[in-house]
Amino acid sequence: MSTVIAKTCGPGRPKDLEKRAAILAAAKQLFPQHGFEGTSMDAIASAAGVSKLTVYSHFSDKETLYVEAIRARCHEQLPEELFDVAARGPLRQQLETIARAFFSLITTDEAMALHRLLTSGAGASSKLAQMFWEQGPKLIHAAFEKFLEARTSAGELEIADVQRASSQFFALLKGELHARMLCGCCDPIRKEEIDAHIHATVDFFLRACGPRPRGVRPAT
């Protein structure tokens, strides 16, 4: 298959962006539902309304498509602009915007399904789980760490370990709400409850990491 594709779609061949978007959309839907092994390139091609040859012309193999689907989903919910310190928005407001986008991402039906597959051990190998981590959560953490570094340098935060602080922020955001949703033991979460959860998380984080009197060590 790869030899035929190389001959048909050589370097410089224009790509149909609409078809690429359709393929990614299908992949983002099917991988969480059926796992990596349970999702075939034929199924993705069918869902996207294209041929399998077209799928391979845009994505060289299924692992590449899996990675791109994860990266695209994360970028949709948490674009780089959210972490742009140059926007110079109020710190609390920017933290709440990031928090809301992250919580929205991890509580989608697709994200919940993918999380269950990865943690069950039935939907992906350790290699695929690592690929998911590197192209999803790891990139989000890295972007947030740079944001925290910039805000710390500006004197708005006092953080000794930005990597740990980033991890703690996102762990706080998941909290009990995310755990209850994963277990399927709660009714749909009301917007008011989500708003209160996000506000409390950001407030807790700022109290722990905000500037403090000289001589008092930062909590993180």
Automatic annotation (TrEMBL):
- Which keywords does this chain's UniProt record carry? DNA-binding, Transcription, Transcription regulation
Q: Where is the HTH tetR-type domain?
A: 17-77
DNA-binding region(s), chain positions: 40-59
Please give the superkingdom of this protein's source.
Bacteria
Q: Which InterPro entries does the UniProt record give?
A: Homeodomain-like_sf, HTH-type_TetR-like_transc_reg, HTH_TetR, Tet_transcr_reg_TetR-rel_C_sf, TetR_C_Proteobacteria
Answer yes or no on keyword Ribonucleoprotein. Answer: no
User: Which molecular-function annotation in GO is an example for this chain?
Assistant: DNA-binding transcription factor activity
| Keyword Cytoplasm part of the UniProt annotation | no
Task: Check the record and name the Pfam families matching this protein.
Answer: TetR_C_7, TetR_N
Protein name in UniProt: Transcriptional regulator, TetR family
